[in-house]
Design brief:
about 160 residues; alpha+beta; two-stranded antiparallel sheet; globular
Amino acid sequence: MSLYQPKQEMKNFITILFFIGTLHTVQSQQKYACSPDELAFYGNDLVSYYENEVLKGKKEFAYNYDELKLEFANQENLEKFKNNPKKYLPEYGGWCAIALANGSLVQPDFNHYKVQNGQLLFFEVRAFFNGKTAWDKDPDINKIVADKKHAQIFDKD
């Protein structure tokens, strides 16, 4: 038996505990991964994610949209958002895309993201788990599954 095995078993055990701790069913589904009383997405400018340079928003370019308190880095980005908010809003209300594909709502780290087919996706990162890395193992299938799970959670009548 090598020394690697116990370490790997411990890593696997911690990973399982992590998933158990983060998987949950949300009783009253919150549309966005941000609380309505907080600055959304860490105050990052949503338009800037699409330019692959995440910029902090500024108070002078604040804008309330739906249940979100948003800030933008400049007037140009604020206007882009106002003209087409659906283009810039994150997919799944900003919930972690890979957790959603696994059937749960988990608040991501808004600094871990990707733009896939014109859609902004956020991912959680904890201990030995990187949501973006897990997503990228099969992004097309994960997107199909996450879309279905999102519809099941939020499109109930």
